């Protein structure tokens, strides 16, 4: 059940580079999500609106990204992982929404755990996470989706995949 989409797209590097460039920063100096958030003076919970504004297209071609980043195709290829070097199209917007929304969910999950005895809220966050993995990051699989639904139908308050693209697991 290995998912090629997860392996094919290095969303972090692509999204960080494009968003840094669109906000006037030297994108080559921004390697981590936390660095981008600091430069933009944003929290992960603010990034959905940034992504919707700055990445309005559903997909971007290599040519689009080379133009945005002001690099040649050869230079662009150098920043890609080995598994993304042959891609011609990149789904930056959905992938970015997933990454930032998932980071916000992790924070909510942590704070909910610290407050204690909020099982329904934790379940809701797990369900949202699975839906995002399935619909935005496209790293689920129909069999996993069926298992998630089976767990929910059997009474689990939340269920989601983890290990997407590498070794799948299901939590409920």
TrEMBL record:
InterPro entries: GHMP_kinase_C_dom, GHMP_kinase_C_sf
Gene Ontology annotations for the cellular component aspect, listed alphabetically: cytosol
Domain of life: Eukaryota
Swiss-Prot/TrEMBL GO biological process terms: galactose metabolic process
UniProt GO MF annotations: ATP binding; galactokinase activity
Domain (GHMP kinase C-terminal): residue spans on this chain: 117-165
Key words, A-Z: ATP-binding, Kinase, Nucleotide-binding, Transferase
Pfam families xrefs: GHMP_kinases_C (PF08544)
Protein name (record): N-acetylgalactosamine kinase
The organism of origin for this protein: Araneus ventricosus
Lineage of the species this protein comes from: Eukaryota, Metazoa, Ecdysozoa, Arthropoda, Chelicerata
Name of the gene: Galk2
